[in-house]
């Protein structure tokens, strides 16, 4: 761990300690106990699915695989980490890295699953059994406090931004390898394995299941399989894949045209790339993310018209829902310890800020402020179930051109963006 990163992490921990102290005072609490969580085994088995540490625990510790452990925060005291580390000849026990940040905690290694004792007015948060008793008058999962902690995570410290930047750097190595594998006529599984090798991670460590879609699979927004055979025709590849660094997630998407793609598809990839760049340049403090999402649809309408896919006006393309049929998802979301990070659909005071009725898939409705990190990911897809209703309407859609894209599936380009004091910083190389 570099000295500069540790200094940033130390400042991050100092910031958390002060903010938690203020929040505990405002909520009239003496302490908060945060449970790391744990994975539950599959039914009738002793094997468990991939696990991710509870976000507010990870906010302090920065490790994504800590189970059955507790973190206790009290004003004017060092954080107390009760780390479950049993003697086990079946598995390598949990251990902390030999890094300077560990000295910032009071750490107790526990061979049995710990249950810290709390005094005074305490809150307990995390995915816990409600019958767990840590203190007689403890508040379990008090929503006002959880909302406030979610809001705290909305604004990243310099340490967090450094971690997100490094996660992006590592992920981009994977994306370059995926592109090379596609050029080499690999199957989806081979492209996935190339991505994992180049980004230096095992499949259980990825922050979300990578989307590796060849041809029409690129039009399935969360395509969940990896084909074992290379297709005889190579029209397209969409790779939506990430990486963690100290718990923080990169979420990057790239799309490539294959040798069998029509020229129209190649032109659309260029246009969506330019659309992404335009939207990134529009990110700034005070900008409403809903307004950016609506700007995406207006620019998508221009792309439809410029490529002769729609022969009406841009206003008609938006008002008739045509752009939504070609791009049904939101422009982006908050990014951090979780890929779809917390508080994106709440106002700063914790009250709901739901997506507007006409854009129900939007995951972020906030006014952008310095320190927020968001994704910008415009898309364009050939999805039959969404396009079919338009065929029954009298609309100036050039279906002969649209149907040329059927084998290509779709396009998505996604970068990770920090909102700075005056503008933005693109973390995605």
TrEMBL record:
Name of the top EC class for this enzyme: hydrolase
Binding site for Mn(2+) 1: 251, 333, 377, 414
EC numbers for this chain: 3.4.13.9
One Gene Ontology biological process: proteolysis
Keywords in alphabetical order: Dipeptidase, Hydrolase, Manganese, Metal-binding, Metalloprotease, Protease
GO molecular function, one term: phosphoric triester hydrolase activity
Manner of cofactor binding, per the entry note: Binds 2 manganese ions per subunit.
GO cellular component terms, A-Z: cytosol
Binding site for Mn(2+) 2: 240, 251, 414
Domain Peptidase M24: from-to ranges: 163-421
Residues in Xaa-Pro dipeptidase N-terminal domain copies: 10-150
One Pfam family linked to the record: PepQ_N
Sequence similarity: Belongs to the peptidase M24B family. Bacterial-type prolidase subfamily.
Function: Splits dipeptides with a prolyl residue in the C-terminal position.
Record protein name field: Xaa-Pro dipeptidase
């Amino acid at each position: 761990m570099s000295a500069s990163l540790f200094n940033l992490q130390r400042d991050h921990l100092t910031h958390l300690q002060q903010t938690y102290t203020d929040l505990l005072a405002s909520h009239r609490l003496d302490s908060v106990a945060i449970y790391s969580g744990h994975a539950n085994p599959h039914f009738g088995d002793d094997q468990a699915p991939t696990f991710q540490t509870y976000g507010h625990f990870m906010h302090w510790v920065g490790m994504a695989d800590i189970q059955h452990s507790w973190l206790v925060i009290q004003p004017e005291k060092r954080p107390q980490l009760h780390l479950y580390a049993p003697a086990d000849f079946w598995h390598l026990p949990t251990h902390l890295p030999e890094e300077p940040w560990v000295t910032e905690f009071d750490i107790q290694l526990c061979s049995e699953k710990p249950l810290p004792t709390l005094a005074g007015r305490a809150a307990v948060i995390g995915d816990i059994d409600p019958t767990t008793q840590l203190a007689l008058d403890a508040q379990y999962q008090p929503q006002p406090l959880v909302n406030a902690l979610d809001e705290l995570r909305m604004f990243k410290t310099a340490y967090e931004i450094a971690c997100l930047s490094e996660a992006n750097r590592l992920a981009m190595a994977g994306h370059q390898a995926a592109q090379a594998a596609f050029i080499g006529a690999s199957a989806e599984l081979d492209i996935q394995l190339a991505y994992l090798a180049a980004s230096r991670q095992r499949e259980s460590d990825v922050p979300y299941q990578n989307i590796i879609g060849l041809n029409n699979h690129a039009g399935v927004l969360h395509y969940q399989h990896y084909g074992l055979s290379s297709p005889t025709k190579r029209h397209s590849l969409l790779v939506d894949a990430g990486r963690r660094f100290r718990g923080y997630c990169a979420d990057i998407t790239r799309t490539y045209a294959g040798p069998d793609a029509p020229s129209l598809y190649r032109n659309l990839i260029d246009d969506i790339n330019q659309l992404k760049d335009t939207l990134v340049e529009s990110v700034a403090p005070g900008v409403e993310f809903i307004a950016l999402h609506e700007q995406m649809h207006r620019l998508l309408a221009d792309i439809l018209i410029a490529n002769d896919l729609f022969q009406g006006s841009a206003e008609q393309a938006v008002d008739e829902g045509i752009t939504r049929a070609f791009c049904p998802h939101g422009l982006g979301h908050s990014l951090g310890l979780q890929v779809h990070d917390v508080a994106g659909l709440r106002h700063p005071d914790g009250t709901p800020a739901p997506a507007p009725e006409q854009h129900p898939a939007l995951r972020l409705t906030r006014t952008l402020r310095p320190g927020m990190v968001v994704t910008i990911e415009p898309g364009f897809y050939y999805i039959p179930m969404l396009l079919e209703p338009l065929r029954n309407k009298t609309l100036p859609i050039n279906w002969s051109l649209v149907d040329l894209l059927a084998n290509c599936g779709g396009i998505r380009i996604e970068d990770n963006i920090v909102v700075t004091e005056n503008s933005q910083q693109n973390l995605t190389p």
